[in-house]
């Protein structure tokens, strides 16, 4: 065990007037909203990598966090890290966690050693999960940090690297299955290119597509019935990523016949880097039928890169959860905090307080979204804007041909007048629910 969080009591709901840094003001796990408890709507998960594996470095400076499990290079310290992680999960009352293989086990001298380290820590997790009731939302493989992945994993020009990626994902998927994981995520951190001068784009896309087909086949082979997810991300770290955004991923899935098998795990920060809003990506995934899970964080809009900060903007979060509620809510997915402390926030209590603030922000946003959905005025305004398309004549026009549509105008009976989109009034309406 570890005393890393010594003296910090479990966080409780205290209501809007609660004092102090470590009390929920909006997140009451048992509060029923739209027919089910908040905990079942939000399905919070803590990210093992940012909370416990990250050492506080950035592109201009190294480690600032000094934790009892540093350096992260042997199984003894990996187990100390696990002790601290499950203590944090207990304090926060989060029902789920997520991990990459490299977060939870030290890198071995060989693949076999790394794999054995992973399965050893999986066995260590088992009793802790049973004791705390914390479950695995999803597992994934880190196919981007080690130098072997510098030219990609599935898209690598070297077939031996492709094979190494296959072995790594096979082990991680089996570990996820053993822990009862509800999803398995693939994030192609290096699946892209820096320059077309040395890149065969068609070959690399075909390799990535075949790799994903293999992943789905292996899930069937081992009886993994969770959801397979791809996490879109533009640019960073490579100049062009093959998984740029939801639309790009859907086109990729269609190309390889996987659009009904694979869904997306959408991150707020990645949506912004792609030039979209979070709610745009969620709405598109909902319309395409591939909305799976989310990574909740925020970017610093002045920095222009993926800063992975804890969410604190209730209006933004409200619009995101509105789209999720419109989709019917999560099934196997949930709200994973892919967010990290600032490198100057050194104290253990900072990690707890950051999650408390993020969970409260999400709860406030979801409740506002639920009020907006229940009230129905936003949907009514949207329906009114498109009401003309409900007429039999308009529907017939869509079923007909270009000449038939043109005839409405050519006959001289149509002289349309533009109508207001009422954007400002709708923005004001949204603010009433916050």
Automatic annotation (TrEMBL):
One cellular-component annotation, GO: cytoplasm
A Pfam family of this chain: AP_endonuc_2
Catalytic activity: alpha-D-xylose = alpha-D-xylulofuranose
Broad EC category: isomerase
Listed InterPro entries: Xyl_isomerase-like_sf (IPR036237), Xyl_isomerase-like_TIM-brl (IPR013022), Xylose_isom_bac (IPR013452), Xylose_isomerase (IPR001998)
CC cofactor: Mg(2+)
Cofactor note: Binds 2 magnesium ions per subunit.
Keyword check for Cytoplasm: yes
Membrane-spanning ranges: none
Keyword set includes Cytoplasm: yes
NCBIfam families for this protein: PRK05474.1 (NF003998), xylose_isom_A (TIGR02630)
The name this protein goes by in its record: Xylose isomerase
Organism phylogeny: Bacteria, Pseudomonadati, Pseudomonadota, Alphaproteobacteria, Rhodobacterales
Gene: xylA
């Amino acid at each position: 065990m570890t005393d890393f969080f010594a003296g910090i009591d479990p966080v409780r709901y205290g209501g809007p007037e609660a004092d102090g840094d470590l009390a929920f003001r909006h997140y009451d796990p048992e509060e029923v909203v739209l027919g089910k408890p908040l905990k079942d709507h939000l399905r919070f998960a803590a990210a093992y990598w940012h909370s416990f594996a990250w050492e506080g470095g950035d592109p201009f400076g190294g480690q600032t966090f000094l934790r009892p499990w540093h350096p992260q290079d042997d199984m003894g310290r990996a187990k100390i890290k696990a002790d601290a992680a499950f203590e944090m999960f207990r304090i926060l009352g989060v029902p789920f966690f997520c991990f990459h293989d490299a977060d939870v086990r030290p890198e071995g001298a060989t693949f076999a050693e790394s794999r054995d380290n992973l399965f050893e820590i999986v066995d260590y997790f088992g009793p802790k999960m049973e004791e705390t009731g914390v479950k695995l939302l999803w597992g994934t493989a880190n196919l981007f940090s080690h130098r072997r992945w510098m030219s990609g994993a599935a898209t690598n020009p070297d077939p031996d690297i492709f094979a190494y990626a296959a072995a790594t994902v096979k082990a991680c998927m089996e570990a996820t299955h053993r822990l009862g994981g509800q999803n398995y995520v693939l994030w192609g951190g290096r699946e892209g290119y820096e320059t077309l001068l040395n890149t065969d784009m068609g070959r690399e896309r075909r390799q990535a597509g075949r790799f994903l087909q293999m992943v789905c086949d292996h899930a069937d082979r081992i009886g993994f019935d969770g959801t397979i997810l791809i996490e879109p991300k533009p640019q960073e770290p490579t100049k062009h990523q093959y998984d740029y955004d939801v639309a790009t991923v859907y086109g990729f899935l269609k190309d390889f016949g996987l659009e009904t098998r694979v869904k997306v795990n959408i991150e707020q920060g990645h949506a912004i880097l792609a030039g979209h809003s979070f709610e745009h990506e969620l709405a598109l995934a909902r319309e395409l039928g591939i909305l799976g899970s989310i990574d909740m964080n925020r970017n610093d809009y002045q920095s222009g890169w993926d800063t992975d900060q804890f969410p604190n903007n209730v209006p933004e979060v409200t619009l995101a959860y509105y789209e999720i509620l419109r989709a019917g809510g999560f099934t196997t997915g949930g709200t994973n905090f892919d967010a990290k402390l600032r490198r100057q926030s050194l104290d253990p209590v900072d990690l707890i307080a950051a999650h408390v603030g993020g969970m409260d922000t999400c709860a406030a946003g979801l409740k506002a979204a639920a009020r907006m959905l229940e009230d129905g005025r936003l949907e009514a305004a949207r329906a009114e804007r498109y009401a003309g398309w409900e007429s039999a004549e308009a529907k017939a026009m869509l079923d007909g041909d270009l000449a038939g549509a043109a005839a409405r105008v050519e006959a001289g009976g149509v002289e349309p007048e533009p109508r207001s989109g009422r954007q400002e009034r709708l923005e004001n309406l949204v603010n009433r629910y916050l």
